[in-house]
Design a protein that fits this description.
The protein is built from 3 helices and 3 strands, in the order ββαβαα. It is α+β, with helices and mostly antiparallel strands. 16% of the residues are buried.
């Protein structure tokens, strides 16, 4: 599970076995549609390794957590 941030302060949360390899895909424009054209991205936060189900649940919990991303941005 990972959180990316770009220069405009936009965050993106996703899951991957190898977040660094996935970051390369996002920055190359071959990652998620949301991240295309909004880069360059960098890893702001990562957790793991987690099993697939646990990673999905953790990603959903972070997206629901009010202020999590704001707290991460404030700590930059």
């Amino acid at each position: 599970m990972y959180v990316l941030i770009n220069g405009a302060g936009i965050t993106y949360t996703g899951i991957a076995i190898d977040p660094r390899a996935r970051l390369i895909q996002h920055n190359a424009g071959t990652g998620a549609r949301f991240t295309r054209g909004r880069g360059p991205w960098r890893i702001l936060y990562a957790e793991g390794p987690l099993g697939h189900g646990d990673a999905l649940r953790r990603e959903a919990a972070l997206k629901r957590a009010r202020g999590f991303k704001a707290a991460l941005k404030a700590g930059l």
